UniProtKB/TrEMBL annotation, chain A:
This is DNA 3'-5' helicase. The keyword Ribosomal protein does not apply. The keyword ATP-binding applies. PANTHER family: GENERAL TRANSCRIPTION AND DNA REPAIR FACTOR IIH HELICASE SUBUNIT XPB, RAD25/XP-B DNA REPAIR HELICASE. Residues 190-344 form the Helicase ATP-binding domain. It comes from Kitasatospora indigofera. Belongs to the helicase family. RAD25/XPB subfamily.
UniProtKB/TrEMBL annotation, chain B:
This is DNA-binding protein. It comes from the Bacteria. Residues 544-665 form the Helicase XPB/Ssl2 N-terminal domain. Pfam families: Helicase_C_3, WYL. Residues 780-841 form the WYL domain. Residues 712-723 have a biased composition (Pro residues). InterPro entries: WYL_dom, XPB/Ssl2_N.
Amino acid sequence: MNDGPLIVQSDKTLLLEIDHPKAADCRRVIAPFAELERAPEHVHTYRVTPLGLWNARAAGHDAEQVVDALVNYSRYPVPHALLVDIADTMARYGRLKLSKHPTHGLVLTTTDRPVLEEVLRSKKIIPLVGARVDPDTVVVHPSERGQIKQVLLKLGWPAEDFAGYVDGEAHPIELEQDGWTLRPYQQQAVEGFWHGGSGVVVLPCGAGKTLVGAAAMAEAKSTTLILVTNTVSARQWKHELVKRTTLTEDEIGEYSGTRKEIRPVTIATYQVMTTKRKGTYAHLELFDARNWGLVVYDEVHLLPAPVFKFTADLQARRRLGLTATLVREDGREGDVFSLIGPKRFDAPWKEIEAQGYIAPADCCEVRVTLTDSERLSYATAEPEERYRFCATTATKRRVVEALVKKHEKDQTLIIGQYIDQLDELGEVLDAPVIKGETSNAQREKLFEAFRTKEISVLVVSKVANFSIDLPEATVAIQVSGTFGSRQEEAQRLGRVLRPKADGHSAHFYSVVARDTVDQDFAAHRQRFLAEQGYAYRIIDADDVL
Amino acid sequence: MTAQQGEQRPGAAAAGPRTLAEELRSRPDTALTALLRSRPDLLNPVPGDLTQLAARLSSRASALRALERLDRFTLQTAEALAALPDGSPLTAVRNLLSGPARVKPHPGATPLGPADRAAVAEALPGALATLRERALLWGPDTALHLVIAAREALAPSAANPGRTGLGPTLAEATVGMSPARLQQLLASAGLPPTPDPVTAVAALAALLADRKRCAALLDQAPEASLRLLDRLVWGPPNGTVPDATRPVTAEDARSPVEWLIARGLLLPSSPGSVVLPRELALHLRGGRSHRSVEPVPPAALAGPAVRDPQAVDSAAAGQAHTAVTTVEELLDLWGLQPPATLRAGGVGVRDLKRAAQALDSSEPVTAFWLELAYGAGLLAPNGEADERWAPTPAFDTWLQQPTADRWALLARTWLAGTRVAALTGTPDGKGKARAALGPELDRTLAPTVRRAALTALAGLPPGSTATAEGLLPAMRWHRPLRGGPATAEGRDLRDELTDWTLTEAEQLGVTGRGALSSQARALLEGRDAAAVLAPLLPRPLDHVILQPDLTAIAPGPLLTPLAQALALCADVESKGGATVYRFTTESVRRALDAGRSAADLHAFLEQHSRTPVPQPLSYLVDDVARRHGVLRVGAASSYLRCDDPALLAEVLADRRSADLRLRLLAPTVLAAQAGPEALLTALRGMGYAPAAESAEGDVLISRPGSHRTPPRTAPTPVPDGPPVPDDALLGAAVKAVRAGDRAATAVRRETVTGPAATPHQNGPARTDTRQLPRSQAADTLAALQTAVLLGERMWIGYINAEGLASQRVIDPVKVEGGFVTAFDHHSDELRTFALHRITGVAELDDNA
């Protein structure tokens, strides 16, 4: 029994005691293959999954390193069966390779003939492959490069893709590092990506993912297609690119519901890509509109299913995925792995926070007690109405007022789900409300006013959840949400985690109705935040009022 | 038996013992002890004297048992002895095993190298000593006697060449051959004729045994014949030929086989097959009995990986700890929910699956733990009518022991046990899957194989790993005959068991990362394994780490009281080296239900947490405690409600109400253990005027009890006579009476004459109405046909299908196909009568 910081559990989770002197070393060696699942204060939980192990293989680690890491840092003996399993799983990666053959084009080759025999017998593989060139090689239809990778991953034999990339149409792009420089971790992320060819960079909200994208473009120096979640986000990207690179306004096109520009750098929204007209995706031609050298996917964890399908056809182009989390609520992490690429860089929030790039946050749940008459109405409400009822209870208003008053010097965001409630709050607090019907122009105007501190309180609906940049929001008050989604939580937290000019800590309040489903959802949220390593307190409304 | 036969044997040296019994008699007591130790079956019952012992030793069953327990070289030595004539000297055995020295062998034979020869020479005395010790062999080195039963079992014959692949001797193979044919063989082989068959065989045998002459003879053989011999030389020595018994001679031999048959180089063993005589085979083999003689055991083959012995011990200790906790967890589970015993024994697949799920493990592994617990006496069927598997009292004792001792019990059980968990789920003889803990999982070979495999592993340097393939050659050498039945894939039971042994050893922590642990070595050597294991086990901890995400992490095994307390107020989320507990509303409530207070829980967390108790956790405990018990549930038989609290207080204070067991629930409500009736009566008795209340709260109007039955029908009156019939009934009755009367009283004219006529021939039969008319069938038919023609009314006797006789008056309409269709006056309808049922007919009197 040695005195390591790591404990290996039978369900393949790894517990890392972070107060241990060797914890930092240990984290470094296990990070390549184990996915950080929970990072609460004292003991972090990592999970070893086949995808994680294959990510590690893709990054050039071998089974021996993984086993050594476990054995060396584990406090208790590691079950032999687990080590064998790890070695077996890792050995599955790279038995099959996709590559370019001088005469046959795209081919699937193997170093282990029985594996090839096994996969070729699969019904799903048969339509994707052509003639058998020799016992170890089979021709793959070039159009099925993505498909076959997806299917092989599902069969448990992920293929390594050595087929290379087309350079695309060259276009000069340089970073303009005047008065700012890439942060070291951003630099590492870009290098990791470029070295790997294609893949995903995982960085927390506010850690400067856009810059990683820009730097990757500067590396590629070719025409680029950027896919983002919505129009606001598209504008944000454009703004940032103009500011940080040699690209000019005219070189960047926006391809959205309102504008259809195709320029050397084109920013398209997921929504327009997935719009169907007469049963077909109307804007697919965008992918072929230019000879793109790089495709950037913003918020990969939100990538809609049809985009995966298009992406399967784009395997010859370099792909960069940017995200705050690899966790997808639809469980399609495997598709991200096979179609966009393995994880190329990842840093836990806490570490980047410790480096001072994102603001520390104080998370606080305020529990309000419903009045007796509200409790009675709540008890009799229809099940589907219950959440709405307790989430929009009038009692919350007083608490929000008190919180806003407490932080009156700070820039405060109030985030909610229900428009009525938001309108009411806007009225009471005399603050503008941004919701679905607010025009983009109006939104940007209000954001700008908020940025310049003309207004200090802004009430936003879920439309503001993604990719808006509100650098000076130091307080966020959440009054209602979409049933405790973890993804939403990450985004909302991101709102207040952007670096603060004055460096003082951000506050994240959730106002929750006690003894209701609202509280149950809050429990998910609490768990998520605590698992992300944030201090979390629960206080009663009376302590605020 | 052997003893008697031995006495008749002339070959024994005068100085040596003449029989096995005699030799046994001369052995010291220690040798006899050794003999009985190696062959314990001889002790049951204890033989009366040495002659009896010798007889018992020589019985086939006992000798075979002893042979099964020989190692490969000793067995080969015994086989060589069996291939030699009885009473051969040691040198003959050695020559047979390694080939005679300094003799030019047959061109095709591969002689043994000098190193191997030396090894054989070195190992042979040991092998002979073993055979002697087991009393399979007796006599001095100059005249060795294999006991008859062993010789019979091992001697090569045409039907059973054994592992030597040799055939019968020339003498044995020519038994029953005609003297003329023998002379033919002699002639064909180029030998002079001899006076009798015995000398003929001897001459042939001498030819084959003489290396030079035999070689000369074979030199003349056609190439094809030599190739044929090559195919038979290492056995099996049998070949199939169309006509083996045809007396071919050298002259008329046409085929290569016949060339050999003509010279006695192949001898017929049956009409369709030939056999290579032992003497020739030995010549061709260069005098050797075994193609590969293995005087030394093959070394167990270590795998490529060599582990640090210390890492091995700790890995095994970790697994040992897991084994103990897993068995504990499993039995705890079955203690709460004992699964039913199948009718054929064992547990059902579903119960096994459920247990596997609870352990978060696979079914085969779960079956292994179950068998282990069963074997160790910790788990057993409870023997009740509705039989279930449950932990035994020994389990409770076991739980009190230190972990190392608990493991030692499991490991000892496994090592010596015959239960083979890996057979669970495999099809039995009838193709049904064998149930876990079922009756068909015992294999007597299992403990031998387990011990042999671990011993082979122990023979490797510390830290060496090995696969079954690496261990099996050595194991096969040590017990060549004990492999068990082979499977379809050509693997015998021992191969399977070895695989399973290695897997199970790893599961149980006997091996760690594939290498044998020190604690397992102690176990094998019979030392105190628990003492070796104890210091390697992780020390139980008295603290946990509490985290803001409402988890508690026990970074190692916990002291039992702490583990139990924690399991009460939190749910286990993951297990392994550490245990992760999660606090939830439900788990905290469970602790409160179990009688803990919020303050207890706070103190408990405070005391055992190495880190400050996170605020959300304290809040959770308080929040659950705040609501815990706010709603109260109890049982009462009735209640007493009053808007005037003073009145209720008065009732409660009244001593007469004590029997009602009243309790004030609220100022205006009393609960009573007495029922509503009793309460009402008692209150009235006390001078109050209570009113009863319905479930909806309405006042029940109280009236003297007025009972009702369920709906009932009125009883039917019982009259003193039958009811008055109505007209229709009467009319019908009259008609029936009339018809019957007409039939009975009809004045008949007998149409029938002859012997069958009724006795009342002289007058109409009016006196006896029961008398059925009788007439001949032909007369009946004629009379009826006439009646049809004339439209006359007839009187008939009729027997219906039930055999009832009746008389009827009918108006026949037609007679056809054996039936009469007629109007029957009795039933007043047209109907048919079967002719054969009509007993007779009579005409009616016209006057009637």
